[in-house]
Predict the structure.
Amino acid sequence: MGVPLSQMWTVASYVIRQKLRGRRRYPLVLMLEPLFRCNLACAGCGKIQYPPHILKRQLTPQQCFDAVEECGAPMVSIPGGEPLLHPEIREIVEGLVARRKYVYLCTNALLLKEKLEAGLFRPSKYLTFSVHMDGTEENHDFAVCREGTYAKAVEGIRLAVKMGFRVTTNTTLFEGADPNAVREFFDEMMALGVEGMMLSPGYAYEKAPDQSGFLKRRETNSLFEMILSNRRDGKRRWIFNQSPLFLEFLMGAREYECTPWGMPCFNIFGWQKPCYLLQEGYADSFEALMRETEWDRYGRASGNEKCANCMVHSGYEATAVDHTFSSFGGLVATVKAMVFNAYANPSAKRGLAAEARKSHGPARHLVQLGLAEDVEGADGKRAFRLKQPA
């Protein structure tokens, strides 16, 4: 199970209270961005393309606390930019933990080992490091446009786990992602001892310097179907820190509408309209955000071109959680998805084999079929050896 029972109970009781009060729109997670600056320049990022004078700005701890109290959501995600660059990130985290908010500090982990060794944070059930990991070493370093970041992040993860911190990974997948490599990456993360993994397809930020790699809706369904199906082979055990219904949505097994108010965003400009991904003005307060935003203009059903291909967790995870507690059927569907999560799918298996042939050639395809195995060659490089017939 990727989420502790205490956190599950806190979220469940919160959602049920909203239902009993008849609230159709309520926040589940506050996306709190204390700064935009970062120590990476990823091609798919829309947060670091601001001028220098904007990148120098940051929220104060009190501004963060006020936003959290105003919003009232039980969970707070702290993305960026890179939050560990904030000079008062310790005070921000400690203040949120003291308020018993479940905090996910999103980081690329380049500074994580340094901050942990300096004693900046203390383990708590309320604090989780959500480490940005976009695949195996080669794929991750390519995605973040810098070599060596994967190794540095793994070093930080290992230390955090050893020190008793909650650690998850956060993976964004783009067009051309190799589903077999993603499955291999899941095995690597589980071996590191992370609590769970979070997944999302990339969103085409208007400010992102590279607009060519974002997934369309059908491509997203196909990719996640190949990745998440057929995963019970006697040794593979993946744990996800997400609603299982959201994962089924990514696979194309469920139809959901976006609930952009479910994960509202507060940053140096105020309350961002309408969501974490789109930037169409700001409100001075959370109440004003909820009242003034024309919510019917957003989401796939609205016909808004900007929303047509979006399947990102910040828009749909809250929808899936709401479904769980909206009816007995939603609760049963969630339990069923948690228990029966192997998703035997011959078509997806054939797709994986085809991708293996395309990405790695005939030898790699034989490994995928179990007819060959990876070995270390005489020169120290990867090689393949055919298995002897039983």
